[in-house]
Amino acid sequence: MGDFPAARNPATHPEWWGKTFYKHFPNHGFVGDIFTVNGTAYPVMEVKRRKYRFRFLDASVSRIYEFRLMSSTQGPKSSASLGYKGDDLEGQYRIPDAQQCMQFTQIASDGGLLPFPITRDSFELWPAKRREVIIDFTKYQDGTPTTKGDVIYLTDVMKMPNGRMWTSSSRFSPDPAYKVPVLKFVIGDSAPDDSQIPTAMRPLPPLPSNWQSLLDNRLIFEVQRGSVAGETEWLINGKPFDPTGVATSLKNTAGLTPLAQQKVNSFNLGEIRNGGGGWVHPFHLHMEEHRTVMRNQKDVTRGDPSHPDDVSREDLVALDPGESVVVYRGFRDFVGPYVAHCHNLAHEDHAMMFGWEITP
Ligand SMILES: [Cu+2]
To answer: CA-to-CA distance for 102 and 120, rounded, in angstroms?
Structure first.
């Protein structure tokens, strides 16, 4: 209303409602105030006392989640009844006395099975990211057996009040009071379970021993927030999406600015860099999965404690503010044009995308 003084105050002019002088939505991204699973708010899932395999996909426009398995004596309370206001009402409920009670065994990410299972207290799920976990409902993490009727909450512990980034998570100024129930598990009868989690699963494709020598001529793409004619625009290497051609790399250490054009059956290193400014970007590369080899100039081919599943096949790069990630990729199947884009859908729809190509 205050945005359109020339229209005076539409609140007092219902005959103006539904007209097309609607201001377009902000392009920061959207975070909703009710979290749904498979289209349902506050779902309840009855499980047997056995292991289950879950596949997670973050289908939110902008929201990043961090999930923990928690139990509670008092149960969820409405955030309003706890005195929260404004953005702090997002999620609508909190579980004030919730405590972590189980761990996840992560077995897969975007591109299928990991080389080995990873035991995790929590995991982040960024827009478009996929992760698969095993939850063993027979016992708590301290070894105590579960009993019929026990309740476990899949709980979001990442506070993200807007499309910009989180304000608290386990990796970044944790807020122990932010515990929002997303999915309630109720444990039922025991059930036979012969399943076993292997210690070794799908090995990663090998890196060439000289991979570091490819660094000098890597392709570099920097995602950034720009400002054009008073509108915030989302840019890559200073440009909005051009659907008519392929993008150009920033100047690499070899002094070159290669085109984003790859010969079929070749491999390369590409750097995706977050130009900073306190925004996060879930960056999605179409076509073939990659393997992360460097994060913030550090070799992570042997793993990175803060991103333990960097050692997997992924197609989504989670970029913290100011972060830079180098990925190794192959281009083995089809020739033709492809895109890469931010998967915060408001950024994508405001042109944070570039074209690239596989040539014969
Ligand atoms: Cu983005």
So the answer is: 9
